[in-house]
Amino acid sequence: MSEDGDETAQALPDALSVPLEDFCTHLVADLSRSAHTVEAYRTDLTELFTDLAGHGVTRLADVGLADLRGWLARQRSAGMAPATLQRHWASIRVFFRWTRDEGLTATDPAAVLRSAKVPKRLPRTLGIDQARRILDDAVAAARTDETPKGSRDAAILEVLYGSGIRVAELCGLDLGAVDRVRGTLRVLGKGDKERTVPLGDPGMRALDAWLGRRGEWMSEASGDAVFLGARGGRIDPRVVRRVVHQHLRTDGEAPDLGPHGLRHAMATHLLEGGADLRTVQEILGHESLATTQIYTHVSTERLRRAFNQAHPRA
């Protein structure tokens, strides 16, 4: 448990704080959820319990559907974004399903709770030419950098775009996960699920260039980590995000999307190049095909815009 989690738990009645921390333990021990995910659940549920306690509800057994609706309604009235309301609704649903299954509550008061409607927005993404320019510039910059940083940063960009892996998956890469013969990476995804993803020749060349200089930053803390920070330890996700933002900003026409934007771009470009949806789903590690389908909408939207601009009878 984090120090912040301890302080938060102490601010709530024991009848609410103890089940909350037990639930967070369940997320880690039984569901293998990441620390980031667990902290998001803890934050959402702490806000709920704090609000309920302020309205006289201090025991799980006393929480009813009207209490949950009232909390969400107050958030909506305060101007909370629909996407955040949707996340809070999801946290409530998961928590109270668990309390019912564990016998902590006789029923699940959130079972019929309706979610907030979130307007569907197509994710912005990089064009193929934009991605090529950014990656080529990063590789060129690495050749003139006297430190290992340029090679590492270029490899980060090439691996994120070339394989479509998540930031956490990139940070968790070990040396044994790189298969040069097959041109693949073995990554550990959400829920500790392992998958193998292809990495093209440019990505593998950039990775080899970085690994050729990795020894200059190695320390006792390096272990088998592929990507290192300047002090020799496994690279931090915040450093990866900073690297991506810095390079995206060098292209005046490219949206500053961060690491997940490279993943979006890779998936969109695969589909535009003729890859089938199931293949893209496997590469990205999506559990549901519906999650992957957003990229078909992006591709279709691009085709529609091109048609409207170019066809004389559009």
What would a concise description of this structure say?
This protein is mostly helical and 314 residues long. It folds into two domains: 89 residues, DNA polymerase, domain 1 (Orthogonal Bundle); 183 residues, hpI Integrase, Chain A (Orthogonal Bundle), CATH 1.10.443. It contains 14 helices and three strands.
N-to-C SSE series?
HHHHHHHHEEEHHHHHH
- CATH level 4 superfamily of the largest domain: Intergrase catalytic core
Number of domains in the coordinates?
Answer: 2
How much helix, percentage-wise, in residues?
55-70%
Give Rg in angstroms.
Answer: 23 Å
List low-confidence stretches: 1-10
**Number of extended strands:** 3
Structural class: mainly alpha
Structure annotation, total helices: 14
> Widest sheet: strand order?
1-2-3
CATH architectural arrangement of the largest domain: Orthogonal Bundle
CATH topology of the largest domain: hpI Integrase, Chain A
Q: Give the percentage of residues in beta strands.
A: under 5%
Describe the structure.
By secondary structure, the protein is mainly alpha-helical. It has 2 domains: 89 residues, DNA polymerase, domain 1; 183 residues, Intergrase catalytic core (hpI Integrase, Chain A, Orthogonal Bundle). It has 14 helices and 3 strands. The chain has a 3-stranded antiparallel sheet. The longest helix has 20 residues. It is globular. The N and C termini lie far apart (58 Å). It is found in: Cytoplasm. Forms a cyclic heterotetrameric complex composed of two molecules of XerC and two molecules of XerD. Belongs to the 'phage' integrase family. XerC subfamily. This is Tyrosine recombinase XerC. GO terms for molecular function: DNA binding; tyrosine-based site-specific recombinase activity.
